[in-house]
Structure formats: C-alpha cells, structure tokens
Design goal:
The protein has 285 residues and is mainly α. Helix content is 62%, strand content 0%. The protein has two domains: 83 residues, no CATH class; 178 residues, Hypothetical protein af1432. The radius of gyration is 18 Å and the shape is globular.
Length: 285
C-alpha cells in the first residue's frame, strides 16, 4: 500500500484545456442511481429496474450481495431480492461502487489502482464513522467513493502531466493542488466540481469534491466526515501522492470525536489490513 509508481511518462502538450465533456462517460446506470435521491419505495423499484436492465451491473450487484461484505444468511438469487434486502440507500452505494470500478476497468494503471484504493479506503472509513455517530452511513460511503473523482479524471486525461505531479510529491495537500494547477492547468478539486456539474449529480457532491482539502470550508452534516476520512486513508498507506511531512494515524484520530475515536483500533496496521481485505473482496466481485 504505497503511492502509485510506474506511471506513464508520455509527454502531453504544455497546455491541455480541461474539458469534462471529453471524458469517457460514467456508467449510465451509476449516474442514474446517483440522481435518485428520495430513497422511497418508488425509487427503490426504479433503481432495481435500472440494475436489471444492465447484465453487467446485475451480475456485479449479485456478487457483492452474496459476498462476506454483506453477509446475508441465505443466497441472493435475484436483483429484486437484493434490492429488498439491501434497501435503497445501501443498494445505491453498491451501484456507485460497481460504477466506479467499471469506469476504471479500461485504464487500471498503477496510478488508477492507487486512486481506486484511496477512494474505497476513504469510503470505508467514512461509512464506519457515520455509523458510529448515527449519521447516514450509505451517503458517507458514496461520498467517500466520489470525493476524488476529479483526480481520477485528471489522471485519465493527462497521464503524463499527472505522473509529474506524482513525482514531485508534496509537503501538504495545498502543495499538491498547486502542483496540479501548474502541471495540469486545474487541480483535482476544481476538476471534481466541474464533473459534478457536467454530469448533473446532486448538489451535495459539489462541495464534497471541491472542498475536501480546504481547511477553511466546513462541510455540513455527513459530508463533514470526508476530509478526516481522506486524511486517515492516507495515513494508513492508501495515499496517491507521497507526502514528505505525513500526519500520523494517531494525530488524525485524535481529532475525531471521542466516542468515534474509541471505536477505531489503536494499531494502524490492523485497520489497514482490514480495509485492504475489504478492497480485495470488492475487486473480486
């Protein structure tokens, strides 16, 4: 679990105009799932029908529903059965995870794998924090999966430029954003915000993608869990960019509310191992 290495050094032109419309489309089923926000019986049926219309998504959802991640006591044999047992919000977070995995499938370079591992680790941590603080754990998970979508897009569009960002490293997150702006013309937070707009995603994701590295912005509600979860994922070894002055697991954990902090293992390696196993289960589904 180390920052990405072996990234392509193919040179791009000095200036590439950022154009979210030029990116490969995010899977339609996952986009529609994100736009279904009500969580009612009607939207559950609509989401179920969306999944059933796509054989690849149907298969992936059934694999995850039958995996140790969900741990149902009986085999799940249909998308409708999975939908009823998982419920709308949990099912939607599964679909978003499957969608992100599918989005990366054709370009799973070491850099993209590192981005994927960081996003899933952040999602797992955010989900646990939300559960232990009685917040919406499924929204927290989805927000964690999507918070770095801008970085994934930059690395996809400008692999050579982003390889130089990786090689340069950073002392602090703000240094990283500055390097991205210098080498890519836009930072991953700005890119993420523009993608949320271009893809017409719910407004809640605007600030999550744009402000998770901004210490001056206080994200509201469940979204407030994302910056700390992102930092903790880095401290556990799921960082994309090497930080020369990394914050320790203990230091980041000390900033969490005490009831939540006590639920996390004191041993960082134990938690990192647990999260790595969850990532493997998702990847194998």
């Amino acid at each position: 679990m180390t920052p990405a290495t072996g990234t392509s050094k193919a040179a791009e032109p000095t200036q590439i105009a950022w154009n979210p419309e030029g990116l490969p489309p995010f899977p339609a089923v996952a986009l529609k799932a994100l736009k279904l926000t009500a969580g009612t019986d009607t939207s559950l049926l609509e989401l179920c029908n969306l999944i059933r219309s796509d054989p690849a998504f149907s298969t992936a959802v059934l694999r995850i529903a039958n995996s140790p991640l969900i741990a149902f006591s009986k085999n799940i044999t249909s998308v409708l059965q999975a939908s009823i047992l998982l419920g709308f919000r949990r099912l939607r977070s599964v679909v978003i995870t499957v969608g992100m995995k599918a989005y990366l499938a054709d370009s799973f370079t070491p850099l993209m794998r590192s981005c994927w591992h960081h996003s899933v680790a952040c999602a797992i941590i955010a989900e646990r924090r939300a559960k232990w603080s009685f917040r919406d754990k499924d929204f927290a998970y989805t927000a964690g999966i999507l918070h770095d979508i801008g970085r994934i897009a930059l690395a996809s569009v400008m692999p050579g430029s982003y390889a130089r960002v990786i090689e340069r490293g950073a002392d602090q997150p703000q240094d990283l954003l500055e390097s991205e702006r210098e080498l890519c013309g836009i930072d991953h937070c700005q890119a993420g915000r523009s993608l949320v707009t271009a893809w017409s995603l719910p407004e809640e994701f605007l600030d999550i993608t744009a402000c998770h590295h901004d210490p001056k912005t206080r994200l509201p509600g469940t979204a407030s869990l994302i910056p700390g979860s992102c930092a903790l994922a880095d401290a556990l070894g799921f960082a994309v960019i090497l930080c020369r002055s990394p914050r320790s697991y203990a230091d980041i954990l000390a900033e969490f509310p005490e009831p939540t902090r006590k639920r996390f293992p004191a041993d960082a390696e134990a938690l990192a191992f647990e999260i790595a196993n969850e990532i493997k289960m998702i990847e194998s589904a």
